[in-house]
Amino acid sequence: MIRVVKGTHDILPDQAVAWHRIERAAHKLFCRYGYREIRTPMFERTELFARGIGAETDIVSKEMYTFVDRDSSSLTLRPEATAGIVRAVIEHNLMNTDPALKVYALGPMFRREQPQQGRYRQFHQVDVEAFGIKSPSIDTEVIDLALSYLRACGLSDWKLVINSVGDAKCRPAYVETLRTALRAQAARLCADCQRRIETNPLRVLDCKVPEDQAIIEGLPRISDHLCADCRDHFAEVIRELDLLAIPYTLSHRLVRGLDYYVRTTFEVVSSDPTLGSQNSLLGGGRYDGLVKELGGPDIPGIGFALGMERLVLTIPVLEVEPRCAVFLAPLAAGALDHALRLQRELRHAGVTVLMDHEGRGLKSQMKRADKLGARYVAIMGEDELARQQWTVRDMKGSTQETLSLDRVADKLIERILGVIKQGQARVD
Ligand code: HAM
Question: Is 263 left (phi over 0), alpha (psi -120 to 50) or beta?
């Protein structure tokens, strides 16, 4: 038997209900904030991610699915959405027509990480990006949108963590200060951190190794090394969060795993124990230099991405939705044609109908109707066939009545949709 590839998973029909719910919530809510959907390809030139995300990041150096195409070009399955969206914005000059461009995307991403609960090699993100707005008020709005989305999906138990990582003006000096402090402690740090001192010292702040924690807490903090512009920007974001009564926790260690961030960075972590260590529901921040770095104009950007698998694992379990409103049980051989006609008429009117195709007995059909959550079962045995009528059983009221062939559809439509069918009236 061929099994699913390690780190990938099927979304089965019973689970798809929750996925539809969070997808619908995204389309509805993001539209209210002025975002429009963008869909970019699932693979891009490898160089886009190397330049966009940073060659020294774990994502680029260890986790990308890269392959050489038949024309020898190097392609990579997208590990995240931001770089591809930025490419599309530049390639199609989207900023020319909309100087405050807001887009969102939903879809699969690929990272070759060690799979565990909440961490997969193919996973899905909801991604939101706003371009062209310098003001800190877009930072607050993007954060507010992320939290509103969690609420719209039925989630209320989370923590917003926020930081400023400075910009090209102040961060290089801080990174050097940090490196110097780290070199002095190198021997006491884990092997990964020792390597990061030279390659990417900021990543040390993200280390989870227990023995390193005391040292990391004593390191110089970026908040003490921000330039005046970054400090003012961050202070305004914080002021606006307070204004909107959005609770947050400041964390000087929130540096995130992608190199494009400047100034505001944020994450929302869940306290749901099902997620274990993979408790980051979403993460994002500002990336003001990225559009330019990828060959576009010098415009700012900010956004976030949320892991859809993690959200589905934490949202309240939904009640199982009925699979049909009406179940047709044509018991007599000659009842099939009536069932096919009735089924079609009901479906055209907007009613969800399922029927038995195999001529099973009444008992097994009733069992099936019950399992599907049908509100009404229409039965046609030999007697009903001879009298040209259906017996319609109300599964909730446990009552039943007989309805003639010409009345049955109208009656069912009226009861289920609450409308009286008039002529060709259709319900979409
Ligand atoms: P990220 O923090 O790498 O940011 O990923 C965002 C979210 O995707 C995480 O918080 C997590 O929920 C989910 N995620 C990441 N990796 C996995 C995985 N292997 N399995 C399951 N879920 C995962 C970004 O991707 C940035 N592009 C976010 C952004 C957009 N920043 C600005 N705009």
Answer: left
Assess contact for 37 and 104: CB atoms under 8 A: yes
- Give the model confidence (pLDDT) of 199-221 as tens digits: 889 989 989 899 999 999 999 99
Give, for ligand 1, the residue of 35, 109, 263 to mutate: max count of ligand atoms closer than 8 Å to Cβ: 109
pLDDT, tens digit, 9 for 90 and up, residues 143-194: 999 999 999 999 999 999 999 999 999 999 999 999 999 999 999 999 999 9
Mutate to test the pocket of ligand 1, among 38, 53, 60, 125 (most ligand atoms within 8 A of CB): 125
Strand partners of residue 393 = 377, 400
* Cβ-count burial 224-260 (b if 16+ within 10 Å, e if not): ebbbeebeebbeebbebbeeeeeebeeebbbbbbbbb
**Which residue, among 27, 250, 265, 38, has the nearest Cα to 143 in the 3D structure?**
265
- As beta bridge partners, residue 161 has 249, 267
The answer to whether the CB of 271 falls within 8 A of the CB of 158 is yes
Instruction: Give the pTM.
Output: 0.92
Q: Which two tokens stand for residue 143?
A: 């954060």
Atom 13 (ligand 1) nearest CA? 307
- Separation between Cα atoms, residue 164 and residue 181, nearest integer Å: 20
Axis-axis angle for helices 136-152, 13-32 (nearest 10):
150
